[in-house]
Every structure is written in C-alpha cells, then in structure tokens.
C-alpha cells in the first residue's frame, strides 16, 4: 500500500553503479530501508542531493510488511536546509547524529516523539550561529529520553558525580569508567534541564564537552544491547576544539 510520511535520511549504501539502498527514519513507519534505482541518471526522479544525511523529506512510499526493503514513489525536500551540509562543523554534527540514529534506532515501530525531536534539532542546527559545540552533546543526551533511559536528576545540583550504570547522580565520589566526576557532571546537570531556547546561553568548557560526549556514548553502550562506539566521534571531537562561540 502507499503511505505518505515525512522522513529523515540516515545512511546510504551503494548497491550497483546506479542504485543505492537508503536507510530513512520515517515519522509514520519508523526506521525503513529503501531501494532507489537510477539515482545517478540525469533523469533520476530522486537526485543524490535529496539523499544527504539528515535531509528532511516528504515521501510517498510503498509499504509491504512482508518485505525488508521497500520502494519510494515520490520524494521531495521539505523544508530545504540551507547551512547544515555546507558548514564543516554543522555537517560533522549531522554525520554524528545520523550515525547515532542508525546504531541506536533499530525498530520499525514509529516513535513520533523521537521523530519530532530529531526534526527540530536538524532545523535548529541549520540556523544556529553560535555555541555549536554544545549541540551534539545536547542531542545525544536528550535523545535518550525517547529511548527509555534518560538520566534521573534532582532539580538542584549538589556537587554530585553521575553514575552511568544507574543513570543518576550520586553523593558517592568514586572514580572510574562508570562515573562522571563533579567537575564535568555539573554541566551534564545543566543540559538535562535545558531546552532549545536555552542552548545559546549554556557555556561548557571544551575539556568537559569532550569528556561528557565520550561518557554519554558509554552510557548508550551500557543501555542499548549491541550498541558500540561511533566512528564519527573522533572527527567531531577534534573539530569541537576549534568551534565557534
């Protein structure tokens, strides 16, 4: 049957010289895999520019629950992005987000809350012009809310550490791979209570951003079976050392 849905391009894999397999996160159908033929043809209905990671699409797709790979009837960008794919830091944040979604979201069941959050983040990043280094940390932290393991936090921060295994702040000041120490945990606490309107005002030292991003990825590894390190993390971390404020 035909389904109209919005979608977010996640990943493309070459199938033949003229065909690709595209992973697209849809609002109505969840994570889906589509075969797209003739994408490099001059007369292609779906151009390569429409299939860059995190492009937002309006789609008409064929949906057959008995098949693992579906087909697309129509696709168009909506809304068009203006900066995300042309700014080096933003495009790297985009690749990080796309890889995270690919590895963390496996189910084909729709999750409208997660979809809307990702869409809002993409549009926010496309137009943001300051404090860009905070964006990937905000995204990976708040995405966990929709996956069922958002950190527990008291309203007031009490110089606590954060225990990754328990997902909560603790007075026990232990050290080790499962702990975010207070010098960094204070910024984690601020981000937990942040929203898009507050991001421009949240300043986090570069050292703490690097530590927190690595630790929150470890948090995902602990809470999602089969989840493993992201290839894009090292590139993103390197770029964030010189980001704009």
Q: How would you describe this protein?
A:
With 245 residues, the protein is α+β, with helices and mostly antiparallel strands. Helix content is 34%, strand content 20%. It has helices at 88-104, 112-127, 135-147, 182-192, 206-223, 232-240, and strands spanning 2-14, 20-26, 30-36, 56-62, 70-77, 161-163, 168-170, 179-180. The strands form two sheets. A five-stranded mixed β-barrel has the order 1-2-3-5-4. The protein has a three-stranded antiparallel sheet with strand order 7-6-8.
Distance between the termini: 48 Å
Order of helices and strands: EEEEEHHHEEEHHH
- Computed over alpha carbons, the radius of gyration is 19 Å
The residue ranges in which pLDDT falls below 50 over 5 or more consecutive positions are none
Helicity range: 25-40%
Task: Classify the beta-strand content into a percent band.
Answer: 15-25%
Backbone shape: elongated
Tally of helical runs: 6
Short recap of the structure:
The chain has 245 residues and is α+β, with helices and mostly antiparallel strands. The protein contains 6 helices and 8 strands.
């Amino acid at each position: 049957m035909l389904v109209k849905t919005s979608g977010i391009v996640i990943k493309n894999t070459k199938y033949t010289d003229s065909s690709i397999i595209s992973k697209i996160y849809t609002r109505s159908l969840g994570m889906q895999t589509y075969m797209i033929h003739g994408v490099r043809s001059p007369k292609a209905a779906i151009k390569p520019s429409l299939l860059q990671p995190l492009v937002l699409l309006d789609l008409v797709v064929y949906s057959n629950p008995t098949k693992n790979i579906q087909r697309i009837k129509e696709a168009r960008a909506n809304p068009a992005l203006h900066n995300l794919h042309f700014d080096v830091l933003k495009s790297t944040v985009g690749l990080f987000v796309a890889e995270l979604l690919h590895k963390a979201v496996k189910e084909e069941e729709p999750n409208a809350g997660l979809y809307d959050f990702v869409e809002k983040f993409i549009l926010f990043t496309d137009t943001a012009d300051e404090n860009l280094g905070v964006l990937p940390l905000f995204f990976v932290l708040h995405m966990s809310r929709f996956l069922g393991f958002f950190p527990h936090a008291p309203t007031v921060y009490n110089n606590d550490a954060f225990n990754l295994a328990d997902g909560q702040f603790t007075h026990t000041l232990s050290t080790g791979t499962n702990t975010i120490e207070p010098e960094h945990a204070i910024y984690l606490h601020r981000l937990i209570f942040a929203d898009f309107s507050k991001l421009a005002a949240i300043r986090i030292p570069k050292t703490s951003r690097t530590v927190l991003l690595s630790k929150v990825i470890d948090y995902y590894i602990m809470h999602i079976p089969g989840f493993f390190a992201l290839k894009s993390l090292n590139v993103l971390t390197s770029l964030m050392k010189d980001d704009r404020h």
